[in-house]
Amino acid sequence: MPDGLQGAQVISRAGRVLRVVSEHSPDGVSTAQVADEAELTRPTAHRLLTSLAAEGFLDLDTAKARWHLGPELYLMGALAAERYDITDFARESVETLARETGESAFLSARRGFETVCLLRIEGSFPVRSFVLYEGVRFPLGVASAGLAILSFLTPTEIDSYLARESLAERWGAQHQAAEVRQRIAETRSRGYAVNPGLLVEGSWGMGAAIFDEHGRPAWALSLTGIESRFSPDRRPDLGRLLLEQAHIVTKRLQKRAADSPQRR
Question: Where is the IclR-ED domain (predicted)?
């Protein structure tokens, strides 16, 4: 294997390992679990885990034999947060969604071809859905946040993604490309996405995209709850509220970009 290709493969595998460990925070994860979820042999997973720990990207709890994110990632994350973390800009809108609807409200960010949940705030309704929680990842087009983001990518990007990803293999026949395309068309028409219990039966979600200063969908606000709370009569009101708050956050981000010293 050429050196460049081998190096790219190592980086790809290391990235998968880091993502698996992050998905198990704060409880940590065993070597065997990392190997299984990153689709690696156990010796390969152990070598990567050990190497990443040596660089400070991971930390091993020797008493429990579980891997955790390391201090170097914290330092890098703190530096990257100024550019990528919009939690402070969106928190008020997430709180508004939870307060006014009674449902669980979320902020998710696009990371490549996935979404990562960054913030969850519970509403007042006592029966909740626990499909989404902070740190969980879903491919674009699966949960409502990812569907909202995917729907507003360019047609070329959507075609390339759906041709490459086989969502139905893991997420079920309801995620065949033709069905995802239909939901994309509906999302673009309404402005907001609806997930009618496609991940967990009876657990519904709705989402609206937040756009960066270049007009690209980069984050999303969403609501989840039980099916009876997302009746046909109520969905338009929930959708309008999601779009209203997503627009507010988008405007805040555009103002931040315009006020940035780098733009002066």
Answer: 72-255
Amino acid at 117: C
Q: Which pLDDT does position 254 carry in this prediction?
A: 87
Output the pLDDT for position 103: 95
User: Do the domain assignments include residue 154?
Assistant: yes
- Do 226 and 155 sit in the same domain of this protein? yes
Does 193 lie in the same domain as 156?
Answer: yes
Return mean pLDDT, the chain.
88
Together in a domain, 202 and 144: yes
Confidence of residue 8 (pLDDT cuts 50, 70, 90): confident
70 and 118 housed in the same domain: no
Asked whether residue 80 is assigned to any structural domain, the reply reads no
Per-residue pLDDT, 80: 62
Written as one string, the DSSP assignment of the chain is --HHHHHHHHHHHHHHHHHHHHHTTTT-B-HHHHHHHTT--HHHHHHHHHHHHHTTSEEEETTTTEEEE-HHHHHHHHHHHHHH--HHHHHHHHHHHHHHH-SEEEEEEEETTEEEEEEEE--S-SS---S--TT-EEETTTSHHHHHHHHTS-HHHHHHHHHH--HHHHH-GGGSHHHHHHHHHHHHHHSSEEE-SSSSTTEEEEEEEEE-TTS-EEEEEEEEEEGGGG-TTTHHHHHHHHHHHHHHHHHHHHHHHHH-GGG-
Residue 26 lies inside a defined structural domain of this protein: yes
Instruction: Kindly state whether residues 110 and 230 are assigned to the same domain.
Output: yes
Identify whether the C-beta of residue 117 lies closer than 8 Å to the C-beta of residue 207: no
Quote the domain boundaries for residue 30: 3-75
Looking at the fold, whether 122 and 252 belong to one and the same domain comes out as yes
Give the predicted TM-score (pTM) of the model: 0.72
Look at the chain and report how many structural domains it folds into.
2
